Structures are given as structure tokens and as C-alpha cells.
UniProtKB/TrEMBL annotation:
It is found in: Cytoplasm. It comes from Rhodobacter flavimaris. The keyword Cytoplasm applies. It holds the Pfam family Ribosomal_S30AE. The keyword Coiled coil does not apply. SUPFAM superfamilies: Ribosome binding protein Y (YfiA homologue). Associates exclusively with 100S ribosomes, which are dimers of 70S ribosomes. Interacts with 100S ribosomes. The gene is raiA. Residues 130-183 form the Sigma 54 modulation/S30EA ribosomal protein C-terminal domain. This is Ribosome hibernation promoting factor. PANTHER family: 30S RIBOSOMAL PROTEIN (PTHR33231:SF1). Belongs to the HPF/YfiA ribosome-associated protein family. Long HPF subfamily. Required for dimerization of active 70S ribosomes into 100S ribosomes in stationary phase; 100S ribosomes are translationally inactive and sometimes present during exponential growth.
Length: 191
């Protein structure tokens, strides 16, 4: 597994890098057979250290975790424990479904736009139908089953995931609802 360990305005020494590689490698190997790479970023916010880790799996899924503590090693351990919990749940779900994905997840290209929200202009114009584009970039949309999309959304700690449904090829969305449940939007089911 490839590691990228860095610090934001923080020096990450050899001892910490060795500790991260051994502990995170052990955690990931315990649940996943073929991880591809891991990115670990340490930063500091006032008196707290923050550790953010992202692990890419060979199936195309991504797991991420974040930990906080007053010591840098404790922040990593908090992050590692969260990653351990996520990977354990993911493996349990795979066992429950009795299905292993034999092929890697396919990704299709899609445009991602960030729009500026300017309340003053939209009220003056009577609706603001032409918002200003702040950023335009390319993102990847995975081809997954609905269950795998929910797992990916939970593994990556996001509130929403856009994916291409592997059954019919249409674009679908799963999202975390305010009541804690997961919602699934499939435009093909609306009649």
C-alpha cells in the first residue's frame, strides 16, 4: 500500500510516519485484502491536533476518518479507531450480502460546478437566473448498486452521493435525511 503522510504547517517526523504506516497498515489489512493507497494529513487547530485519513480500496470504494486530540499520536489513534470501525462495518455488510464484487467500480466523468450565492443580486434581479460560477472541475461518478452507494456514502462520511445505478445505468442519488435515515432518489421510478 502506498502512503502519503503530510502535515499542514506541521513537521511530520520519521517516527510518526513509521507509526502511522505500521498501525494504519495493520488496521486496513485486518479487514481489506487489497488496499491501494492511503493519505494521512496532520494539522493543528489552536491547541488541538487533527488527523484526517483517507484509504482507497481496490474495489473503488473510499474510507475516510478524522480524529482530534491534544497530542498528535492521540489524534492519529482516534482517527485510526474510527477507520477501524468503518472498515469493520463495511466488511460485515459485505458478508451479509453474500456477494463479493469481482470487478472494480467503474467511474464516469462528470462536470462539477460551484456556484456563488449572492443574495443582494438575486433580490434586485428578481430571481438571479444566471449565478456566477466560482469553480468548474471534473469529478468521477461511480457505477454502483444502491447498497454499495449507501456503504460508500457512509465510509466517506458524506451526506450525499451521486452514482450511476449498475442495474439500469441511470443517475441516482443517496442522501442522509434529517431524521437520520438514508434517502434514495431514482428519477426512473417517478411516473
Amino acid at each position: 500500500m502506498r502512503y502519503q503522510i503530510s502535515g499542514k504547517q506541521l513537521d511530520v517526523g520519521e517516527a510518526l510516519q513509521t507509526h502511522v504506516k505500521s498501525e494504519l497498515g495493520e488496521t486496513v489489512d485486518k479487514y481489506m485484502q487489497r488496499p491501494t493507497d492511503a493519505t494521512v494529513v496532520f494539522s493543528r487547530d489552536a491547541h488541538e491536533y487533527i488527523c484526517e485519513a483517507t484509504v482507497h480500496l481496490s474495489t473503488g470504494l473510499t474510507a475516510s476518518a478524522k480524529g482530534h486530540a491534544t497530542e498528535v499520536y492521540a489524534a492519529f489513534e482516534s482517527c485510526r479507531e474510527k477507520m477501524d470501525k468503518q472498515l469493520r462495518r463495511h466488511k460485515r455488510r459485505l458478508k451479509d450480502h453474500h456477494k463479493e464484487r469481482s470487478q472494480p467500480v467503474e467511474f464516469g466523468a462528470a462536470g462539477l460546478y460551484v456556484l456563488a450565492a449572492d443574495e443582494e443580486e438575486s433580490h434586485e434581479d428578481g430571481g438571479g437566473l444566471a449565478p456566477v460560477i466560482v469553480a468548474e472541475m471534473e469529478t468521477k461518478v461511480p457505477t454502483l448498486s444502491v447498497g454499495e452507494a449507501v456503504m460508500q456514502m457512509e465510509l466517506s462520511n458524506t451526506s450525499m452521493l451521486v452514482f450511476r445505478n449498475e442495474k439500469h445505468g441511470g443517475v441516482n442519488v443517496v442522501h442522509r435525511r434529517d431524521d437520520g435515515n438514508v434517502g434514495w432518489i431514482d428519477p426512473r421510478n417517478s411516473k
